[in-house]
Prior knowledge:
The chain is α+β, with helices and mostly antiparallel strands.
Amino acid sequence: MTGEEDKDGARGDLWAHAIDRAGLGVWDADLATGGCYYSPSWSRMLGYEPGELPDDPDLWLTLLHPDDYDQAVASGDHHVAGLTERIDTEMRLRHKDGHWVWVLDRGGTVAWDASGKPRRVVGVQTDITRRKQAEDGLAQINARFRLALAASGTGIWHHDFETRTSFWDARTHGIFGLPAIDGEVSLDQWSSQLHPQDRKRAEREHMMPRETGETVQLRYRMIRADGEIRHLETLVCFVAEFGGAGQFVGTVRDVTEACLREEALARAARHDQLTGLLNRSAFDVKLARALESAAERHFAIHYLDLDYFKALNDFAGHAAGDRALQIIGGIIADALPDGAIAARLGGDEFAIICPVNSGEDPATLAREILDRIAGTSFGEDAGSPKLGASIGYALICDASISQADALARADDACYAAKASGRNRCVAFGEGAGASTSGLTAARILSETIDAMENSRLLLYGQQIHILGEPWSASHRCEVLARLQDRNGRLIPPAAFIPAAERFGMAARLDRWIVRTALERHGHAMRGPGQLVLGFNLSAQTLSDPGLWEFVDREVEAAQVSHSNLVFEITETAAVTNFQAAERFVHAARERHCRVSLDDFGSGLSSFDYLRRFPVDSIKINGDFVENLAGSAFDQAIVRAINDVAKAIGLTVVAEKIEDDETLALLCGLGIRYGQGFFLHRPEPLEGIVANLRHGRAAM
Ligand code: C2E
Ligand code: CA
Ligand code: CA
C-alpha cells in the first residue's frame, strides 16, 4: 500500500466513524451486479444488528411504507434515468419493533459505465422522525389556531418597523369594513378609522408594547368604512426578532355586542327596573360622594314616601301599584334640576340628592313634586284613585355627618310630613311635635313605651255634638291620646303613633288606651244615655287576633255595655287589611259595639267601602270641613257624602268645625253630628267626665 492509499484508508475509516456517530445510514448500490451494501448504522437506525439483514438491493423496498412507495421509487428511477441530479426524498421505513421511522434519503451517482449510465449509486439516510413529529405538531397547532381565529372572528395583522409596512389578514380587513383580502394596507389606515374620541388614547396604548415589552390589550371605537361605529378589542405585542427592526403583531376583534351588553348590565345593576331611577346601592354611592364635598357644595336630601300606596296596591292590585310607581318615578325625574339625582329606595320610598346654592330653598323642589303628583291621575276611569306623597328634606352642609344619619334626617322629616297630615313637605328640624328636636322614630317609640309604663301617656277627649244641641244630648266623646315628654311638654298623637305603627307597637298602645279609659271612666258609661267613648284603632289593631277577647274581658271588668264603645277605623287602615277589617266590623256588630269610618273621603273610592263595611257612622275627613265656608267644592263633597250616607242609613259626623259659619253650613246640609275646636277643644278625659256628672246633677 502506498502512503497515499494509507492516508485514504485512514480517512475512509474516519468518515465511516463520523457517519456512524452521526447516526446516518449509508447505502451503496452497484447497479451492474445488483448488489447493495447497507452500513451497520443503517441497520441500527431500524433496530437491527449489522449482518442481521441481507445485502439485498430490494431490502429497503420490503421495509418501505406503502404510502411512500411510489414517490420513493420514482425519486430513484428519475435520478438513474438522468432526470434529476440527485435523489432527495422522505419516506417511512419499518423499524424492527414494528413502528415507522421517517428518513430523509439523499444520494446520487458516483460511478458511470462506459455508455455513461450510472453504475454505482450511493446515498445517506437520516432519521428525521423527531422533525416530522414536530412538524406534525406545528401543523396541528396551526390548524387549531386558524380554527380559533375563525371561531372568534379574530383578525391578525402585523406592522414591520424596518420596511414600515402593515399587513392585515382578510378578517381584519372585514372588521374595518374593507374588502376581505389578505394584504398590505397604508400606514395611516388604522388611525384614520379610529373614533375621534378614542384616537389619542388608542394610539398611545398601541405603542406601549414596544416600550414595555408586554402584551397590551386595548379597546376602542372605530368607524367602519360604511360609517357604522363599532367597538374593537386589540391585543398587540412587539417581537424584536421579527424583521430587521422588530414587528408589532396583533389581533383585532369586533366586541360591539359584548360592549353593549356589558353597558346594559352595568346600567341595570345601578337602576331600579320599574322606574328607571337609580337603585338603593347606586344611591348610597352618590350620597357618599356628595357627603365628601358637602362643606363646599351644600346639598339637600329629599325623602319621599307615597301616601295610601299600600291601600292602592292591596286594593287595586299590584299592576296598578307598579304603574303608579312608574308615574311617580317619571314625575320626580322630570322635576329634577341640573346636577340632581333621584333613586327609588324600595317599596314606595324615593330619595333625591340635589345641590343647593345659596339663596335656594329645597322646599321649592319638594312642593313642585307634590303639586305634580296632586295633579296626576293614576287611572283611566273617572273615579280613579288619587295618590299623595309626603316629602321630608334635610340640608347637608358638612361632611362630618354619617351617611346613615344624613338619610335618617330626611326620613325623619318625611315622617313628620306624613304625621302632619300628608301631602306636605317638612324640613328636618322643623315640623310638628316630636320632630322639632329631630327625634328619630326609634327614640319616639321608646319614649312612648316608657310613657305607657310611667303614666305619662294621657287620655284626652273631644266632645262630639248633635249639631245645634248641647253635648248632654249626645254624651259622645272621642278619646285622643297625648304623650307627655319628660319635660312635661305634650306631644300630639301624629308625632308618636306613626312610630308605634312603624315598629309594630300600635296594637299594644291602642289596648293600653282602651283598658285605661275603661278602668278610669267605666263608671260613667254603664248604659243608655251614659258616656259613649270613641276609640281610634290603628290598622295593626284591626288584625290583632286576640282583640275581641281582650275587649270582652275589659268591658266585663269595667261592667260597661258594649254599645257604649265606638271604634273609629280609618279608611286607609281598613283597606290596608281588607279581610281583617271586615272580620273586625262583623265581630263589633255581634256585640253591639259601634264602628265609625274615620277620615272618610281621604282615601280611594271611599263610597265603595260603604257597601263592604256595614259601619254605623262615617266621619267626614276634617280636610273637607276646615274651609267649608270658602270652598264650593268641599261643600259639594260634604253634601254628596251626607246624601249617600243617609240613603244607606249611616250617621255622619263632621270633624274640625272651627267656626260658627261652618257649623251653620253643616246644619244647613243636614249633617247630624260634629266635633271641632268651635264646639269643644280636646281636654283631659277627667274634665269631660266631671262635666258630665256636673251636667247630670244640674239636670
Ligand atoms: P282623628 O281621629 O281624625 O282625630 C281628630 C283630630 O283632629 C285630633 O287630633 C283633634 O285634636 C283634631 N281636631 C279636633 N277638632 C279640630 C279642629 O277644629 N281643627 C283642627 N285643626 N283639628 C281638630 P289629634 O288628637 O292630634 O289626633 C290626630 C290623630 O291621631 C287622630 O286623628 C287619630 O287618627 C290619631 N289618634 C289619636 N289618638 C289615638 C289613639 O288612641 N289610638 C290611635 N290608634 N290613634 C289615635
Ligand atoms: Ca278619629
Ligand atoms: Ca278623623
